[in-house]
Amino acid sequence: MSIQNNRLPEKEYAENFSDLHPPFENKEAALVEANRCIFCYDAPCTKSCPTGIDVPKFIKQITTDNIKGSAHTIFISNIFGGGCSRVCPVEKLCEGACVYNLLHEKPIEIAKLQRWSTSPAIENKWKLFDRKNTRLGDGGRKNVAIVGAGPAGLSCAHVLSREGIEVTVFEKESKGGGLMTYGIAAYKVTPEFCANEVDFITSLGGIEIKYDHCFGKDISLDDLQKDFDAVYLGMGVGLANKLNIPGEDLEGVADAISFIYDIRKNSYASVSVGEKVVVIGMGMTAIDAATQAKRLGAREVTMVYRRSEAEKNCTQVELDIARLDGCKIQWLASPVAIAGEDGKVKAIVCDVMKLSTPDNSGKPAPVRTGETITIECDMIIKATGQRPYEKLIEDNHLENLNGKIIVGKSNETNIKGVFAGGDAVNGGREVVDAVQAGKDGAAAIIKYLYQ
Ligand SMILES: Cc1cc2nc3c(=O)[nH]c(=O)nc-3n(C[C@H](O)[C@H](O)[C@H](O)COP(=O)(O)OP(=O)(O)OC[C@H]3O[C@@H](n4cnc5c(N)ncnc54)[C@H](O)[C@@H]3O)c2cc1C
Ligand code: SF4
Asked: pLDDT confidence of 203, banded at 50, 70, 90?
């Protein structure tokens, strides 16, 4: 057993990482699907979208071939509407709420239709919005600093820019998009798409992204408060949780975020993967790590989770993807030690668990049975959640709960004029939640600047 790169021929990598949900093949196919929609009053699909996209309206616009109008309807609510059409867990959002489910029929393919309208807009950088000048007489043009060019930061930037406000985004990486670019599985969104989406968002004007600028290192909160009228913090969460078990420092133990980051930043062939991989966790990140390890050529991938299938954090659709990719699942197993040889991972030892009465999470608590199992492996990927940037937040005297920034109703932190949103506040949800948080933050900043 060994960890190595270049496990597959180039053609196989391309096939393994091709689009998970391909777009409609042609206009006729899109029209047939759009015409299935019955344009519900008080549409449940819209209500279940955290950004409140007017789904029946944009689908109706597709039926009349008004693709620009349709794209505008989507982007006015969600400027990441293109990315969201590829990465949103729609089975638990809009498509899960579609009335067709009640008739036991296939729900409308909302995500695919949304992709149909947003793709040409992003590819051709359609100018769908104007920047307001109306605020000019209102105390002069204002400027706002945003930390983080992820979905929260850029969604906030876009709304502010439409209002005529000058925005400077400080991003520690060399590309924008946040976890869209560096975290989400490559078979959902390609790096090229993410780069185009960021270009589309900034093409409105009034948004400058300063890449390779790290808040807390290259710039401080004092600097930002001095130079800008308001500050928005959208730096997400970044650090992988530790397992705190013996053997965690052995060669072959990786964290899912770094593993996926490597895949997103480098060529598939250059990323090393084990022959027998164990992934710890059962959330979206764990699924992405497991399926991508398999697609990089790992012979065997086993996912280990301390509860049962009923308590999993991922959706059924995601679990089905992992199963279809050939990943094995070991339910009711909790890692207690990693065994090694010559400094390298050799196996993982897990306590066998059973379920008891619910704990603080509301889910049945896993308790030890006294038995253990050992799974032979040469690579272990930890995907048991991420920790916020607690030290950075403490150093800046921001009120927080275990590193998650606390904001009031107005999205303002305990520091006047400093707002926050997205994963940095909620601890890690989905892209669409971060987009809405960015919109809410922008609305609060506009109120703060002009009242
Ligand atoms: C592996 C993985 C898979 C996921 N898959 C999905 C999925 O399929 N669908 C889905 O909807 N959601 C998914 N998510 C969740 C989703 O990616 C996040 O909820 C969303 O990106 C949060 O947006 P954000 O803007 O708050 O933070 P981020 O996307 O994390 O963006 C924060 C930005 O701030 C920058 N930054 C951080 N610190 C600093 C600093 N000190 N100075 C300057 N810049 C800084 C970061 O580089 C980053 O660009 C996934 C998450 C992970 C980890
Ligand atoms: S619930 Fe389904 S049928 Fe009704 S408007 Fe939404 S997509 Fe159309």
From this structure: very high
